């Protein structure tokens, strides 16, 4: 039986350089399970997605992060891509938004390079998570324990390593949302 998250609202925090499938596939999973998704970004207009380093599709921003509040959502997803989280972690509103999600105790899911924004928000100390392997040292330096697993859940924080892990990532995201 498929997981239903009818009525749940999920913020997808992303900007230019987001890895396309790490945004589109989890969004499809949320919407297919009855939830609604909103693309939140540090800018308005459209964001430019990538397929590795090549340009992919563009996606319309539905709300700027400076205007977003955690109370409007049931969960947060941080897709990866190399540039996307690097831009996000330099934006004070994006970092605040991420930190506020952790303060609220609501589920947060991050894939690939997405945990870079978690490091900047100061929310990984004492947690166990996975990511793209190159983030291992950054996460350890921020106090996290890094594991090389397809998907790892630590008290509502869902993390995965790469696009190949998306099916398991989506399953765990939906599971956390259905609680």
From TrEMBL:
SUPFAM superfamilies, alphabetized: Class I glutamine amidotransferase-like (SSF52317)
Pfam families to which the protein is assigned, alphabetical: DJ-1_PfpI (PF01965)
PROSITE patterns in alphabetical order: PEPTIDASE_C56_PFPI
Domain called DJ-1/PfpI: residue spans: 8-176
Record-stated family: Belongs to the peptidase C56 family.
PANTHER family reported in the protein's UniProt record: DJ-1 PROTEIN, PROTEINASE
Database matches in NCBIfam families: PfpI (TIGR01382)
UniProt name for this protein: DJ-1/PfpI domain-containing protein
UniProt lineage: Bacteria, Bacillati, Actinomycetota, Actinomycetes, Micromonosporales
